[in-house]
Amino acid sequence: MRKQFSTVVWLIIALLFLAVSICAQPARRPRTVGQPKTDQRGDAGKHQTESPANNQSPTDNAADAPTISVDTTEVLLPVTVRDDAGRFVADLKAEHFMIYEDGVRQQITSFALKRLPVHVVLMIDTSSSVQKELEDFKAAALRFAERLDASDEISLIRFDDKVELVMDWTTSRAALKRSLNRLGTGMFTKFNDAMLLAAREQLGRVKGRKAIIVFTDGVDSGRGSIGAEQAMRALVEAEAPVYVVSKTRIQRRAELRELEYYESGSAASRTMNRTRIDGLRLSLDVLEASEKQLTRIADETGGRLFLPQSFDNLNDAYHEVADELRNQYVIFYTPTDARRDGRYRATRVKISRPACHATTRLGYYLR
Q: Which residues pair with 69 in a beta bridge?
C-alpha cells in the first residue's frame, strides 16, 4: 500500500511540473500553409496596409502594429502605346487614357509609365522540331534577359515530351545562363500543358506585372492532358501578355521549297514520293492553323506575335519584347461593377491624342 501511495505522489508531481513548463512557453502564432512571404500589389484582390502605432517605423513594435484589411477590387492593365510609325509613345498622362469595361467608362485610380517590376516566364520549346536552332535560341534568350531591368524576375520552363520548371523566380542572369546551358531536347511538343503550367503555377502565385515569352512553332502534339481552349482560358485568367516568337514562317519556307522540288519532278517521281508530298502538305496546313492560334493568344492577352523570316532576326524579336516591357504604361482602376461573379469582362483602351494606338489585353475574369 505504501509503495502504491508513493507512486501516485510522484505521478502527481510530474504532471504539475509538465503543466508549469507548458504555461511558461511563449504563445506561438499560427502559420498558414503556403502563405506568401510578402504582400505585393495585386491585379484584383484584397490589399493589406500596415499602420504602425504612434508614428513608429514599420520595424518598431511590429507585433503590436494594427493591420487594416481593405477589401478592394483593383484591376491592373499594362498598356503599350505606339504612334503610326510603330514607335513607343512615352510622354502621355493619365488624362490621355480612356478605360472601358464592358463598354462602361472606368475611373483610373493609379497611373505610371512602367516602373513596376515584371515577372517574366521564359518558355522554351525543346522538342525535336527546334533541335537545330536551340543554341541560337539560348543566346537570344540570354540577351533578352540582359535588356530587362535588374529588378525584373525571370523563371524558365522547357517543354517537349515533358513540361519542366527548370528555374524558379530569380533576378540572377548568371543563374539563367546556367539553366539555359543545361537544356536538352525531346521529341514531341506538349504546348498546351506548358502554357497551363506557366499561367497557373508560375504566374498564379505572383501579383503585379507579368509576362510570358515563348519560342515555339505552337504545334501541340496532342499527347498532353489539356486542349487549346483550356490553355487559352488559363492564359486569360493569368492576366499576363503573351509574346510569341514563332518559327512557323521559317519552317514553312523550308517545307515549301521541299514541296516545290518534289512536285516539279516527273509524274513517276511524284508518284514515288507521294507519301512525302502529302506529309508536307499536311504539315503546311498544321503550321497555318498553329499561326492562327498563336495570333489569337497574343491578341487576347495583349501581347504580340513575332514571325521572323530567319534566325538572323531572332535577336530583333527579343529586343522588341524587352523594349516593350520597358515602355509600358501601368494603369490601375476599380471597376464600377465590383461583383466577384467570375464572368468575363471585356476591356478596351482609347487614347485621346491623335495617331496613338494602345495595346492591352481584351478582357479578364473577376474572381
A: 48
How many CB atoms neighbour CB 285 within 10 A? 10
- CATH number of 118-326: 3.40.50.300, 3.40.50.410, 2.60.200.40, 3.30.1960.10? 3.40.50.410
Quick one: 154 exposed, middle or buried, by C-beta within 10 A (0-12, 13-18, 19+)? buried
Q: What is the pLDDT of residue 114?
A: 66
The pTM for the full model equals 0.77
Percent of the chain at pLDDT exceeding 90: 55
Distances (CA, A) of 192 to 12, 214, 223: 66, 12, 10
In order, the DSSP letters of 223-287 are -SSS-HHHHHHHHHHHT--EEEEE-HHHHHHHHHHHHHHHHTS-HHHHHHTHHHHHHHHHHHHHH
The H-or-E segment that residue 60 falls in is none
- Residue-level pLDDT at 132: 76
Going from N- to C-terminal start, the domains of the chain cover 77-114+329-365, 118-326
Q: What is the Cα gyration radius of the chain?
A: 28
76, 43 Cβ separation under 8 angstroms: yes
* Over residues 77-93, mean pLDDT: 94
Average pLDDT over residues 229-242: 95
φ/ψ of residue 252, rounded to 5: -60, -40
Contacts of 114 (CB under 8 A, 6+ apart): 325, 326, 327, 328, 329, 330
Residue 219 CA to residue 282 CA, distance in Å, equals: 12
Flag whether pLDDT at 300 surpasses 60.
yes
- How far apart are the C-alpha atoms of 232 and 97, rounded to whole Å? 28
Instruction: Report yes or no: 156 and 164 within 8 Å, Cβ to Cβ.
Output: no
Q: pLDDT (tens digit, 9 = 90+) per residue, 175-223?
A: 999 999 999 888 888 999 999 999 999 998 888 899 999 988 888 888 8
Per-residue pLDDT for 49 more than 60?
A: no
Please choose, from the candidates 253, 248, 186, 170, the residue with its C-alpha nearest in 3D space to the C-alpha of residue 215.
Answer: 248
- Tell me the pLDDT band of 312, cut-offs 50, 70 and 90: confident
